[in-house]
């Protein structure tokens, strides 16, 4: 990701010149059944720089919180500087809390695969490279794991992307929120070149492809979400 903090912060300075693409995909044939009386569930997804993934899901109806952070490694290495080395096991990820009465886990995965990132890229997204930018789903339980794996198999069988999906499914060992300056980054920096080129088109695609799931006002970490 391109990080303009005026000194010392690690980051990738390249810019992707291609417009963000999207693929219209079928809904999952299998989904997580909403538990009776449940009002909040959690999904953890990684798809490249967390600025864009967070920004997309902050605009999804039924999402009550989307926090940028790290998943896949341990607590001691859960910092931007350490994760940027690519040696911690962490991926930049987003913890999504959602109301299962309004949106399902499978629907979140449909948005994730279609507009939030390119699931066919291995250990990279756009200008960002390294295992910390891998496409990964961190299911919170066996049911989420089943749905995620079945959906990947469904999409691969249908060949909707033209090549195999690189997304991994990894047991959720823990989620560690990122530093404050990474939260709500898309909303707070809409004119930053990286955001303009790589991330704002994702929100436009969400609005276009999933109009029934789009909301104009994002739910922000800075507003106590």
Task: Give a topology summary.
Layout: E1 41-47, H1 50-57, E2 63-71, H2 80-83, E3 91-98, H3 105-116, E4 124-125, E5 128-129, E6 135-137, H4 142-158, E7 168-169, E8 175-177, H5 185-188, H6 193-209
Parallel strand pairs: 6-7
Antiparallel strand pairs: 1-3, 1-6, 2-3, 2-8, 4-5
Descriptive account of the structure:
The two termini are 24 Å apart. The protein has one domain (41-219): Peptide methionine sulphoxide reductase MsrA (Peptide Methionine Sulfoxide Reductase, Chain A, 2-Layer Sandwich), CATH 3.30.1060. Helices cover 28% and strands 16% of the residues. The longest helix is centred in the middle third of the chain and has 17 residues, at 142-158. Strands 7-6-1-3-2-8 form a 6-stranded mixed β-sheet, with helices on one face. The protein is built from 6 helices and 8 strands.
Number of strands: 8
Shape: globular
- Indicate the CATH topology: Peptide Methionine Sulfoxide Reductase, Chain A
Query: Stretches where pLDDT falls below 50 for ≥5 residues?
Result: 4-19
Strands of the biggest beta sheet: in what spatial order?
7-6-1-3-2-8
Amount of beta strand: 15-25%
Q: Could you tell me the mean pLDDT?
A: 92
The first-to-last residue Cα distance is: 24 Å
CATH architecture: 2-Layer Sandwich
Number of discrete helical segments: 6
| Name of the level-1 CATH class | Alpha Beta
Total discrete domains: 1
Write the CATH homologous superfamily: Peptide methionine sulphoxide reductase MsrA
The value of Rg in angstroms is 16 Å
Q: Portion of residues in helices?
A: 25-40%
Order of helices and strands: EHEHEHEEEHEEHH
